[in-house]
Amino acid sequence: MKSLNDLREFYLKTLRPDLKILDDRRKKIVRKLLLIGVPTFIVVGLCLLVILANELEINVVFVPFFLGIAVMAIAYHFLTKKFIADFKSSIIQRIVRFVDENLRYLSSACVSESEFKASRIFRHRIDRYRGDDLVQGRIGKTDVKFSEVHAEYKTETRDSKGNRRTQWHTIFKGLFYIADFNKHIRGEIVILPDTAERLFGRLGRKLQSLNKPRGQLISLEDPEFEKAFAVYGDDQIQSRYILSTSLMKRIMEFKKKTRRDIYLSFLGSSVYIAVSFAKALFEPRIFKTLLDFEVVQEYFEDLTLAYGIVEDLNLNTRIWSKQ
Amino acid sequence: MIVVLLAVIVVVVLIPVMMYNSLINKKNQVANVFASIDALLKKRFDLVPNLVETVKTYMKHEKSLLTKVTEMRAKAVSGRLSDDDRIQLDNQLTKALGGIMVAVENYPDLKANQNFLQLQASLNEIEEQISAARRAYNATVTTYNNAIEMFPTNIMASMMNYKLKNLFEIPEEERKNVDVGNIFKSR
Asked: Is the ipTM, as predicted for this complex, more than 0.90?
């Protein structure tokens, strides 16, 4: 796998010239946003003064305010759309190839909703599903596929005045990863972050086992793993066949590396891993410079986090009946 | 008043029943997993003839090892062993198989043989399954032992005459890494 020094060399030789061009475009976009923003701000301010002066109903204050935000949002969207696409096809594409030239990158594609649902990790009804930055390829003997995913559901409520309010709730946002697993999987095993155990200890485990729809709660020998995760599986033996002591240790190490909530499932012939990210990955910054090495480093590190899973979980070791 | 009395009777009857059933459940779980282990161990013994056939034409110097393994299988299949004897025999087979796999390192032709590679994968698969089954057994036995020792189910358990069960332990000799020198010397 490529080191940071390799990346620095790649950055200086290959990326920097194009980053400069893109950064100039970025600065132009910021200028245009200011050109639209300042007048908008003034207009909104004047409207507010007029409203307050005429002592109109206080709710009317929101109208110019939201109109101002809408104008800025639309301007932002139109000005940055092409820029983001060009940035991805130029910079991100090359970083992906740099990590491994056999990987394919598609900036506007993502893991499909059916594959996301097939993992059985998140079983809530999905009302809005989107994603981008799909990376696909074969690493050693393992086929992998991952992208950013944002899945949400909505709730509609009627407030006291009878108005309908739609609220969106996030089911999952972050990196979603699918890989060919190195053992035959019989049944399904789902590994979720263990919130109850952290709070309630043994009583938490009793409460978890009441979560019937999920299959049996499997209690495993690794105490660190048990504290961090709750494991649900169809069969006691098959779950332990998949979750060997060494795999549990590896999953624990990977979780510590990401420093985030992770979810896993094993079913069919694949392992599914969901890593929760609050930030958007592989997006260019608009309001800060793109020229620093740290910018490229962050993309590289996020990418190698996903790319390294095959090695971290030892998926290329094919000594059992599945090849 | 009558309602309170009825409630007390229901509780006094219900709780022991629940405890009794829960203990039976745990005992049966243990038996269930033990049966699975037994089935897997049999499967492993069934791989022995195939292994001996594939290996013997190449490993001309390892004849004694191979005959030992064939004998072990015959003993296992004969079905006249106690539980403890079965476990002992299984441990012996694990050691012998380990010895064969180490010896294979000296025969590069054998290592590349397709049949052998497939066999090795099957053996690894079975070993992994057995390991998983052993861990599952220990987990179910721990649950059972907990119920027998903890209050209040320990009262019910002693009434049912339930005893503690042993966990699967790896014998001391197996825990030490396979010493290649010893294997060649002992032949």
From this structure: no
